[in-house]
Structure to design on (370 residues):
């Protein structure tokens, strides 16, 4: 009757030994969002020796060692001493924020973390950008290989920041021999996120630009966290994408969502998007539309070769996204209040767009009077 006890003891000893051999991983942006989820996952893992959590406020993970500071503070180098890996997730991708301030935070923060990591003797830094850096173009392969040329421009929300972060990541190993940089590029991220692409599904109609070829590949935040853990453990290196297997065509998205399309000529859609953004009525520049027009589906072969598999399908993630945005109403990337949303829902997307156009005309008239 006493034979099971040695087995239990052996399991505990193995777990302790495994944890003692594992890496010390620091996570920036650890108090919220993806950073919080990753910190929780790493803190619970027997393969991780210690988790260092860095943010401007303390998060809820009790088993992590917390340091409260801005990632742009050079003092972060001291906080990183003893870490083997840094996963840098302290990014500002707020649609409603000031673009200049957002870029200053993202670029300066990444520069500081890379320099501090090298000074502290860290072996690897993991950066998280987006598959958007490949660009959405009509001649893209479907799917794109992970080593495809990055052809995105800075015309879409935050993409300029992500391209600069990747440039810094490529340059860092040359400037700091001994420092490896891994870059993780998720597809359309879903799960507590607010982006131009998730807001697309808050509209009463799905805008489709005539002659375009939309394809949709999603990445649930749980799968991203799992891929980041793989990167932190060194199971996958270099630059790789993460997302669901395969993709959905626009017709499939419309069938699964039950949301009908509204098709517009490209000149009308792109011109209206540019004008609305220019006068400050919408947070999304016209460049965001390209990611709803052209394919940017990516292969996830590097992760597959490492033994990783997504826990979510595109259909499941789309379902989760629709549940998450239920009750929200967005037209042309702009969130509507309850009164406006009721009107938009009753009258349909065309009337809502006409109403937005009327606002544009009023703004122009007011400016002419000044």
């Amino acid at each position: 009757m006493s034979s099971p006890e040695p087995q239990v003891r052996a399991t505990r000893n193995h777990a302790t030994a495994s944890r003692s051999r594992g890496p010390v991983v620091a996570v920036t942006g650890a108090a919220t969002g993806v950073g919080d989820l990753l910190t929780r996952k790493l803190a619970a893992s027997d393969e991780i020796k210690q988790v260092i959590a860095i943010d401007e406020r303390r998060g809820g993970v009790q088993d992590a060692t917390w340091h409260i500071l801005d990632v742009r503070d050079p003092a972060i180098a001291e906080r990183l001493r003893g870490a083997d890996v840094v996963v840098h997730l302290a990014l500002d991708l707020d649609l409603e924020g000031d673009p200049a301030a957002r870029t200053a935070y993202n670029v300066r923060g990444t520069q500081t973390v890379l320099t501090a990591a090298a000074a502290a003797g860290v072996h690897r830094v993991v950066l998280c950008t987006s598959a958007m850096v490949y660009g959405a173009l009509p001649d893209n392969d479907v799917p794109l290989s992970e080593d495809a040329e990055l052809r995105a421009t800075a015309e879409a929300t935050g993409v300029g920041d992500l391209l600069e972060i990747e440039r810094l990541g490529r340059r860092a190993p040359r400037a700091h021999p001994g420092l490896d940089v891994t870059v993780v590029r998720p597809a359309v991220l879903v799960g507590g996120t607010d982006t131009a692409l998730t807001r697309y599904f808050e509209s009463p109609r799905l805008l489709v630009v005539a002659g375009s070829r939309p394809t949709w590949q999603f990445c649930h935040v749980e799968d991203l966290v799992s891929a980041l853990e793989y990167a932190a453990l060194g199971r996958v290196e270099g630059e790789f994408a993460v997302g669901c297997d395969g993709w959905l065509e626009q017709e499939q998205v419309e069938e699964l969502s039950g949301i009908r399309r509204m098709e517009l000529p490209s000149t009308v859609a792109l011109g209206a998007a540019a004008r609305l953004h220019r006068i400050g009525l919408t947070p999304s520049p016209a460049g965001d539309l390209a990611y709803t027009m052209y394919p940017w589906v990516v292969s996830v072969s590097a992760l597959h070769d490492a033994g990783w598999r997504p826990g979510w399908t595109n259909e499941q993630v789309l379902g989760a996204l629709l549940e998450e945005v239920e009750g929200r109403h967005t037209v042309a990337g702009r969130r509507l209040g309850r009164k406006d949303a009721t009107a938009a829902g009753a009258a349909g997307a065309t009337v809502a767009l006409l109403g937005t156009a009327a606002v544009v005309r009023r703004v122009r008239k007011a400016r002419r009077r000044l």
Remarks:
- The longest helix spans residues 99-119.
- The first strand starts at residue 24 and ends at 28.
- Confidence is low (pLDDT under 50) at residues 1-18, 338-360.
